[in-house]
Structures are given as structure tokens and as C-alpha cells.
Give the backbone structure.
Amino acid sequence: MADLESSQVSDFYRGKNLFLTGGTGFLGKSFIEKILRSCPDVGNIYMLCRGKKGKSPEERMSALFSEQLFDQVRTENPKSLSKVIPLIGDVLDTNLGLSEDDEQTIINNVNIMIHSAATIRFDDHIKVSLQLNVGGTVKMVELARKVKNLISFVHVSTAYANCNLSDIEEVFYEMGKEYDPLKLLELCEWMDEDVMDSMTATLLRDRPNTYCLTKAISEAYLFQYAQDLPLGIFRPSIIGASWQEPAPGWIDNYNGPSGLFIAVGKGVLRILEGDVHKVADIIPIDYCVNMLICITWYTSIITKQVQQPLIYHCTSGSKKPYTWFQLGTLLLEFFQSKEPYNEVFRRPNVNFATNQVELNIWKFLSHWVPAYLADGISMFTPSQPGKKKYSMIRAYDKVHKASLTFTFFTKREWTWTAGNCDMLLTKLSDADKRTYNFNVNDICWEEYYPKLLQRN
């Protein structure tokens, strides 16, 4: 529990009402949990929630709050969960799909808006990414303009929005006229998907995927059309498992690097394309949440004192570098000798290929040959009662697809400045530095990664 007597941050949230998109996502629900736990006097948290057939909003909230993430809140302050109020809507729909009554609730009552909803699929069609990431941002800004007592609006971007650069500062980078956000959204309304697909490579240029591109375009929209709002922009790098909260090593999905780590431990993933000397820039979820909470507080203070919205990087590589070689060595030491997993496919081992030819050779020898042998043997082996046979060929299709999305990031590294991040730390009281710690120097990677691996 936060030291409430000397917490500027908790004082700020007292009685304030929030509107949040992306509240069921990894970052969004972690943010809600920490706010409820550390700011018990917060007002209502209105959460945009897509309608789901067969499940009422109340049932969806009940399922969310039954997750391990909310164990401490359920134990210490279960009544606070009633402050989270789902509002049916969708960022793809006009006016976010909100009913007139729900829109009026936001307009009349909300003080803080946080836009975290986005498609994080790297391989989404350009049209889908534009409509979700850019279109959702436009609709949030349009709603924000109607809110009567708005004091802070924070947009969650990504540190990789400008990954076409190697040295990235906490500033907005201008994009060309061809990236006009509103014109691109207009194209989505009438242009055929195949035609838009043919434009993708031209638009991407030296960015790796539509996610990074549309996050950059979203920032362009904000700097063109939303600088009059009390705006802050948050750029985290690759969000990983928790360092301390709600428990060391906690994570709720394996869509990112964590899934690849587990595949290494199971002896499935044995070769990746990348440069072992590059830095793996991963930031724990609890550090992201703590920083987001503090940015929201500070944005309400600093807005009238700055000419442009402040951008905050939340990264680890520049301050606490840990290379892919160091990470790979730690994984193998853990899986081979300390705490090997049960039911492994092969003895864990992993290497990095430096080029496509080397990668394909090792994939053939270390992945496909064992996979076809295993599936061939499985064809002549009786199935165990109640247990479905597992195809290693299909498993490798999924592993290769997942690892391919990260190749751009394992072959490169970036330097992010952190002046605003460092400045924000200095604005916190001692109590808030303990409750909302995001000082990367406090992380010990040799303890962090084993905690993640032990939980799986």
C-alpha cells in the first residue's frame, strides 16, 4: 500500500474519474490494478469494453477481476473493484461506439483520459492498423475536446515508432506529406484492400511493420491536431514480465519474447536470426505502469508550462544494457542445469544465425528434420486415452512465424534518450519513488529472467 500521507501522486488521483481504452490488455489491466491498490480514493475508472456475444459487461469484469493480477486488491480492498465501470464500445466505431448516455457520462464526469487501445499485431493489414491505431486516436481526441473538466490526456505509443532511426530522442519526428493521418484514414474508407496492400511497402520504407508505422502516424496526428489538450506521450519499448509487482515474473501472455524463451526451454526453438552483441531492450510491466501513472499526474501540472507535449521514453538498453548473448547464456544455464522443464522436446540449446542462409540451414537440421521424425513416429504410436496427438510440424510453423516478427529487433539496437524520464523521477517524493518506482538501474537482469522462467 502506498504511503498516502506524503504521496503527491495518490493525492492527485483522489476523487478523479478516468476513462481508459485498452483496459483488458496487458498494460491496461495492470494499470487499473495498480491504481486501485495504490490510490484507494480514486474516483470511477470508466473502461471502453467491446461487446461480446453471450457475455454481459458484468460477466467480463468478473472474469477480469478473478485473474491472479487482482489477488491483492480482492483481498485488501474488494469494494474498490466496483469503481471500474465498463462502457460498451469499440475504437473502430463512430464516436467509439458509445451510447449517448455513456458519452455524456464521460463528458460530464471524466478528468483523465488514457488511450492504450491498439492492435499490437506486427503483421496486421495496413488498413486494419490505420483504422485501429490512428483512427482510435482521432476518436479519442474528438471525445477529449468535449470533456468539460479534462486535466490530463496520455497517449500510449511505442519506443519503436521511430525505429527507422538508431538514435531516438524524446521529441516528435516530422513525417512527410504522404503520411497525413486524416488523408490516410480517408483512403481506408473507399480504397480496396488489395490496392492498399500494394502501397504498404512504399509507406513502410525502413520501418519493419504496420504497428510501428501507425504508431508514428498517430503521434503525427496528435502533434498536428491535439497540442491544445493537456497531452503527454508515453513510449515504452518491449514490455515484459513484472520485476516486482504484482509478483516477480508475472505475465499474462506469451505473444512476445517470453513465448520464445519458453520455446527455448522446451527444446523447440534452437535457432534465431540476430546479432548476439545487440541489446535486448525489454522493460518490466510494473515499471511501465508506474511510469504511466506518474506521467498522467505530471501532465496535469506541466502542460501550461511547455510549448509542446512532453514525450517520455520507458526503455532499459541505454541505462541497463543486457545483450542477446547474455540473455541466451542465462537461459541455457537455467534450463540445462538449474531448473529444466518437464516434457521437453529436446535438450534446450539456442544459437543466433547472422544471415538468412545460415538460418535456413540450421532450421532444416535443428527444427524440420526432428519435427518430421517426431511426427512420423507419432503416426505409428497409439494415442493415449483422452490425450490428443501434438504435431511438431505445426508447432514449428507457429514458432517460426513468431520468431520472424522479432528478427528486425534482434538484429539491431537503439539508443533512446531519457531526459524526461529522469526529470520525472526527480519530481517524485521519496514515498512515491518507492510506490511508483521506474528506475531501471534498480533492475537485476540475472534475477529478473529466472523469476519469469520459474513461473512457467
